[in-house]
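Q: Here's a chain of 169 amino acids. Please give me its 3D structure as tokens.
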Amino acid sequence: MRSDYVDRDTFRHVLAALTEPNRLAVEVSLATGLRIDDVLSLRTCDLRERFSVREQKTGKRKQVKLNSELLDALLSIAGKIYVFEGRTDYRRHRTRQAVYKDIKRAAAAFRVKRLQLSPHSARKIYAVTQYHRTGSLAKVQQLLNHSDEAVTMLYALADEVSARKLTRR
């Protein structure tokens, strides 16, 4: 399934209805552009203002910077091993399906059913925000750690693609 782009304000409403750990996980994705799998697998011992992540999908390294407010919130909920502990076993991290289900529940509560929202929507919002801020597709490509510029375009222009998609319905 593909995830849709939604404006940041609408997404903030959905975030407000999530459980605290899921909300924080999505906020990390919004702030860093990390995929939700990479966020959920963060280890407590690695949490700092700046740290490096090896992306699970690509194996590439990415430098991440968190603001102090987000870092403090993460440290306050962090588990023994993983920041986002699993529901039944602290030795495993929370699953992306748990976050996905929570987002679907919250989106339904706010009647945002016409869009396919998922944790990956946060990555698209990050890309669009960075593209509007910098005006540089190359910068967004670097921030998302993409090899292909065409893929970056899909993310950076997701707001325009979603707007056209909605007008066709």
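Q: Can you summarize the key feature?
A: The chain has a mean pLDDT of 92.
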